[in-house]
């Protein structure tokens, strides 16, 4: 594929403008539409000579990358490596407070997404790449530093471009008592947003050990092999950029609970921006969707009231502020953007099912889904579990798996076969 490696001149200009604005006290992420518009307008009217330094930076970067071996994408910015030593992949989002340099942090995440996409060798492989999308609802976020996020609900969907939503994991979480001084805020937020009761909510689980281990098990599949080190990366989950802090906070809260079981436990997970993912995927197949367009799509309300999208509780309330619903709606939007480019015809797992289509056959399936207990890794509609199998040829995955404490615990065995056991392969 004749893809150019390294970033183009405009990208370097974008970083330059980002830094300029930072000096004016405006902290924009590289995906921020406002920043991109400002930089885009300036760039359009810029004389050649002024563009030259950025062209040079780009050329330099590109030649640097091209002159080295085939795949040598170092996803780790220097400053980050120094901070983290060998463990560069560890929970950057959670350690973000330690990384002073905003730019290298952004660069780290952007490169991580880029190498994730580039680790797939072809368009076909990319279509089968499992993309894990996470969503959360919280009771409150404390004013302390760093903020604590008390979780009430979590949803994770596993999506591939070819198959759509494969599975969705969903739980309500018992966050305990509302911290002193936050009662008003917590009530208010519940009333105006997710409506999840703050106490005595029956479906909420307080078995944090199981929660953490289940989530770990599911996300294990999201690692890929870093071409530089040859080692598996952290687990990768995607969400919208504006949800990264909250999702990372929820994971941090769960980790703290889990530390009473496994002292010193830390997640090995990164929270990554879906916009960057869309840009990298579409760039990979040489039909790029720009970041502002992707951002617009991913924040649109197109699927807010889609059927069979929210969890039961939120479905009954007709309330789309559902963690599960969010991950599914983001999946539908990915379908809208990516399936046409990959020439894939969306199925009922790609988009919200239309109730009026083949009602009989369809209702049967919905009933099946409803009989699955709420506290489980639910299968998507019409998923045939026989199609799952652990990937036996991936030694690293298996090796890592065997290091996990309690990997044969009963909670694991109750799970439907094949789920979360190393990199699953979709057999045709
Ligand atoms: Zn919900």
Notable traits:
2 domains; 428 residues; two-stranded parallel sheet; alpha/beta; binds zinc ion
Strand percent estimate: 5-15%
Name of the CATH homologous superfamily of the largest domain:
Ribonuclease H-like superfamily/Ribonuclease H
Largest sheet: 5 strands, mixed
Fraction of residues in H or I helices: 40-55%
Q: What are the segments in which pLDDT stays under 50 over at least 5 consecutive residues? A: 65-99, 355-428
* Text of the CATH class of the largest domain: Alpha Beta
Provide the residue-averaged pLDDT.
76
Shape: globular
Number of discrete domains: 2
**Could you say what the CATH architecture of the largest domain is?**
2-Layer Sandwich
Helix tally? 16
State the secondary-structure class. Answer: alpha/beta
Tell me the distance between the termini.
Answer: 26 Å
- Ligands bound to this protein structure: zinc ion
Short synopsis of the structure:
The protein is an alpha/beta fold and 428 residues long. 42% of the residues lie in helices and 11% in strands. Zinc ion (ZN) is lined by residues 153, 310-311, 313-314, 322-324.
């Amino acid at each position: 594929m004749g893809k150019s490696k390294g970033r183009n001149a405009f990208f370097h200009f974008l970083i330059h403008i980002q830094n300029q604005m930072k000096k004016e006290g405006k902290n924009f992420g590289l995906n921020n539409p406002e920043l991109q518009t400002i930089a885009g307008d300036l760039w359009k009217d810029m004389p050649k000579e002024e563009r030259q330094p950025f062209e040079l930076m780009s050329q330099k970067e590109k030649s640097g990358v091209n002159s080295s071996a085939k795949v040598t994408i170092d996803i780790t910015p220097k400053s980050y490596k120094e901070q983290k030593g060998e463990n560069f992949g560890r929970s950057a989002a959670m350690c973000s407070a330690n990384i002073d340099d905003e730019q290298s942090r952004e660069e780290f995440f952007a490169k991580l997404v880029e190498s994730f996409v580039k680790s797939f060798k072809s368009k076909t492989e990319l279509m089968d790449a499992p993309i894990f999308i996470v969503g959360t609802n919280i009771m409150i976020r404390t004013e302390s530093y760093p903020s604590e996020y008390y979780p009430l609900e979590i949803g994770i969907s596993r999506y591939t471009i070819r198959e759509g939503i494969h599975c969705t994991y969903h739980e309500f979480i018992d966050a305990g008592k509302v911290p002193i001084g936050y009662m008003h805020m917590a009530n208010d937020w519940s009333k105006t947003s997710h409506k999840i009761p703050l106490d005595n909510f029956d479906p909420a689980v307080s078995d944090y050990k199981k929660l953490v281990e289940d989530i770990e098990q599911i996300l294990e599949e999201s690692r890929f092999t870093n071409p530089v080190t040859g080692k598996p990366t952290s687990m990768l989950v995607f969400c919208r950029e504006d949800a990264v802090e909250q999702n990372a906070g929820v994971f941090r809260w769960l980790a703290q609970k889990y530390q009473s079981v496994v002292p010193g436990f830390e997640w090995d997970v990164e929270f990554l921006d879906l916009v960057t993912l869309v840009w990298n995927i579409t760039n990979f197949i040489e039909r790029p969707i720009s970041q502002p367009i992707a951002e617009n799509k991913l924040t649109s309300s197109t699927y807010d009231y889609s059927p069979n999208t929210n969890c039961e509780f939120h479905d009954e309330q007709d309330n789309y502020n559902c963690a599960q619903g969010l991950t599914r709606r983001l999946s539908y939007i990915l379908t809208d953007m990516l399936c046409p480019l990959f020439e894939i015809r969306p199925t009922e797992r790609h988009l919200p099912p239309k109730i009026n289509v083949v009602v009989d056959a369809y209702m049967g399936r919905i009933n099946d889904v409803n009989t699955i207990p709420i506290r489980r890794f639910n299968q998507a509609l019409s998923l045939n579990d026989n199609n799952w199998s652990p990937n036996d040829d991936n030694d690293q995955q298996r090796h890592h798996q065997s290091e996990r404490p309690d990997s044969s615990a009963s909670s694991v065995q109750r799970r439907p076969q094949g789920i979360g056991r190393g990199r699953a392969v979709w057999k045709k």
